[in-house]
Write a structure and sequence with these properties.
Strand content: under 5%
Number of strands: 0
Order of helices and strands: HHHH
Largest sheet: none
Mean pLDDT: 89
Helix content: 40-55%
Low-confidence stretches: none
Structural class: mainly alpha
Radius of gyration: 16 Å
Length: 69
């Protein structure tokens, strides 16, 4: 894997939890306890929380129009 300079790492690590946990795991080789704590934030913070907010009260997407065939 190519080296990542500290400026790029700094930029990535202050980003969204969806990116931050992967940086901690893949680029910084952090302990799983560190990155799993960060990964758990995805559903409640940042892009992940925003994405999940589009579900309805029952947790259904698209008013239930999709069903597997």
């Amino acid at each position: 894997m190519p080296a990542v300079d500290s400026t790029t790492l700094d930029w990535l690590i202050v980003g969204d939890p969806a990116i931050r946990w992967q940086v901690q795991r893949d680029l910084l080789a952090e302990n799983p306890a560190v990155y799993e704590t960060e990964r758990a934030k995805i559903a409640s913070e940042g892009w992940g929380a925003r994405y999940l907010s589009y579900r309805d009260k029952e947790g259904i997407w698209g008013n239930g129009l999709y069903s597997p065939k």
